[in-house]
DNA sequence: TATGAATGAGAATTCATTCAT
DNA sequence: AATGAATGAATTCTCATTCAT
């Protein structure tokens, strides 16, 4: 999955960026010098593969998000239902801070007004069909869960996606400790979220049958 | 509420920053020159009131967030229940893009690793009791809704706060068009979110009685 | 001697500058804000009495040098000979670090290429007859010592002045610890310098008689 | 002696600084822009070789002082005695105003309270054994002259160093015309100084035999 | 292809001086 | 007369990008 045709230099740059921001660097203040030093290549070399700094960083975010999502996608396939799958995602986020980080940074950057942001949005827009980003993951979750429900409106599908997305953001927010005022334990939080999704889905299905 | 003893120059800087990012500027690439030009004061003057650029920007975010929250807080008081209040908040966000912007930017910055972020977090930590920031607003919503529920654990309270927060973020995400893949109409989205919150609160209350 | 017609504001500025550089401030990096704050007056006020910063600092140096020299001049009058007088000066420098400081700083600045330097040199050039600066002190020492030597050429007089001056600079250098490589004790140093001056004067007188 | 492993850019900066202050610039008001313009390199380039302005200027002073001292040291070796050597130094100072300038500026800066001063002092403290600065030159003069005098106390050695240093300062003072009141001719001055040092040494040696 | 030395545009910050009160 | 808020020119330093090797 690394050998997707990426030149080793490009991968080195991507991994350097990811390492740097996993170490806590601020994406908006990353320098090309830092990146290439970490990547172990010359500054000029980076410019052979990227046309500017934004491309390096946005590319790295895209690369990371893709990798995390693809890996998750493969690994949660055997989980029995949506609830278990979400729990799997949350546990993964809990175990691999770097993953939360990547996922979250990407989301974060997606709504910046920075040059990096514009680039990343463009990359998501132009991505190949088989490149899975976060929203694809969530869509797959919903589609799988609802595969035998007939007559699911596009509207409903999107509502469910949003619902799940909001839960995951909720957990990420919690993990980031951005709100240090909260005292919930991680496992409790996870349980609450999963229980909640279940009941939501249940009530949704019931309401559909009723309709 | 603007006359909180703020010097006019300070306010001018704050408002310049807010205007700039409402216009779509990237907070991390704002220059002091831009800010003071917009504020109509000399570059040096800004440094009479702030000790560095970060203080100007973080201060502006804090000021805006405080203002938006205080105003919201006062205005949704008469709304009958939590659901109506959230709807009120979402409508406000819909009508005043600047509000979404401010609120969202602040949240966004809160989880950066930038210098501005650190400063803003510090400001939130050190704020006066009567300065309402976003989490206070959400806490008030929950406390009001749950005031006649006895035996609400701190844990549960926090969970509910997180739940509501995540929905609002969802709406903001949607507004920002970060998920251009979604086609829901704004009013539908709002309705869905409110319905969802209601049902969660309901099921929460039920589960408490059962317990 | 302070009531030489100096306005109290002017004196306040002078004394503030002297205090500041006695505390170790770098003359070339003194700011008007610092000076007026120390002087206890408004920044604008300083500009009522001085036309620019250089005038304040050069003025302060001139004022200090004049005061130290006048005081020394009065006090060493009763010392029996040149040697005793020089010893008196050196002891004064040893006891009052501020004096060494002032005297030295002034000399130091005299050979700068800074704006302050130009101003101070101008002040020395234009000074009133009764204002004693360092070279006057030294000249008086030489003239007194040589008063009963007939036929002392201007040339010789100047040589002697230079000779004495260089010894005093040597002592100041030593005091400043600029030559931390030297381990002589202060009193020893003083004695050596005086002995040295005596012998020079002696040999000078002898050579004159011989001539 | 320029090929001491110094990169050409570094040397260019050093030489630019020296040229600038030989032309009369004030060391404390030299700007990086001026220096790099004179050196014929880009502003940014200077920062590839120095970490700040102080390092450039202090480095230049140290470089100049070292070069002047090393060259003098080599050239006066064949002079027969201390007196001739000092005369050689003085003549060199007379002929090459730049040399006097460098030497004097360095001494001058050594007793500043500026950042440059601190840096230069540090450089002198940390210098390699084979880097000769001014005090080393003077020490060598004394040691050579006194090599066959047994029982020379450290105290005496230092006294002699001070004595010689004071004469040289005397000549520099004279040269700088800081005291434009002096009318002595240069050659006369030099003669006086040398004669004086001779007699001083003579009387010193005599006193030692007597002791 | 890979490099990193060189660059200069651009940003933050300081501070002498002015001037309205 | 005294003030200090306001200013912007000037300065240091950074860093994306280029290009000769």
Question: What can you see in these coordinates?
Answer:
The structure is a homotetramer of 211-residue chains. Chain A has 211 residues and is mostly helical. Chain A has a single domain, classed as Tetracycline Repressor, domain 2. Helices cover 73% and strands 0% of the residues of chain A. Chain A has helices spanning 8-22, 32-39, 43-49, 53-75, 82-95, 97-110, 115-126, 134-145, 154-176, 186-210. In chain A, helix 4 packs across helix 7. The termini of chain A are far apart. At the A-B interface, helix 6, helix 7, helix 9 and helix 10 of A face helix 6, helix 9 and helix 10 of B. Chain A binds a DNA duplex (21 and 21 nucleotides) through helix 3.
User: How many domains make up the 3D coordinates of chain A?
Assistant: 1
Overall structural class of chain A, as computed from helix and strand content, comes to mainly alpha
Unreliable residue stretches of chain A:
none
Radius of gyration of chain A: 19 Å
**Largest sheet entry of chain A:** none
Q: Helix tally of chain A?
A: 10
Helix content bin of chain A = over 70%
CATH fold-type name of chain A: Tetracycline Repressor, domain 2
- Indicate the mean pLDDT of chain A: 84
Note the overall shape of chain A. elongated
Name of the CATH architecture of chain A: Orthogonal Bundle
Oligomeric organization of the protein chains: homotetramer
* H and E string of chain A: HHHHHHHHHH
Q: How far is the first residue's CA from the last residue's CA of chain A?
A: 45 Å
Q: What is the percentage of strand-forming residues of chain A?
A: under 5%
Q: Can you tell me the CATH superfamily of chain A?
A: Tetracycline Repressor, domain 2
| Counted beta strands of chain A | 0
Please report the first level of CATH classification, the CATH class of chain A.
Mainly Alpha
Largest protein interface, residues of each chain: A-B, 48 and 46 residues
């Amino acid at each position: 999955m690394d050998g997707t045709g990426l030149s080793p230099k490009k991968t080195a740059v991507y991994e350097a960026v990811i390492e740097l921001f996993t170490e806590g660097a601020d994406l908006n203040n990353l320098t090309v010098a830092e990146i290439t030093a970490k990547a172990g290549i010359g500054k000029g070399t980076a410019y052979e593969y990227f046309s500017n700094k934004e491309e390096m960083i946005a590319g790295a975010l895209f690369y990371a998000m893709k990798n995390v999502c693809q890996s998750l996608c493969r690994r949660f396939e055997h989980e029995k239902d949506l609830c278990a799958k979400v729990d799997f995602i949350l546990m993964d986020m809990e175990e691999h801070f770097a993953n939360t980080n990547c996922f979250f940074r990407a989301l974060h950057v997606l709504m910046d007004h920075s040059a990096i942001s514009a680039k990343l949005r463009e990359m998501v827009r132009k991505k190949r069909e088989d490149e899975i980003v976060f929203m694809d993951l969530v869509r797959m979750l919903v589609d799988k869960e609802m595969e035998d429900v007939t007559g699911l409106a596009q509207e409903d599908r999107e509502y469910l996606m949003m619902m799940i997305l909001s839960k995951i953001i909720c957990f990420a927010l919690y993990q980031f400790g951005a709100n240090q005022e909260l005292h919930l334990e991680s496992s409790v939080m996870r349980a609450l979220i999963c229980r909640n999704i279940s009941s939501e889905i249940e009530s949704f299905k019931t309401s559909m049958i009723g309709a």
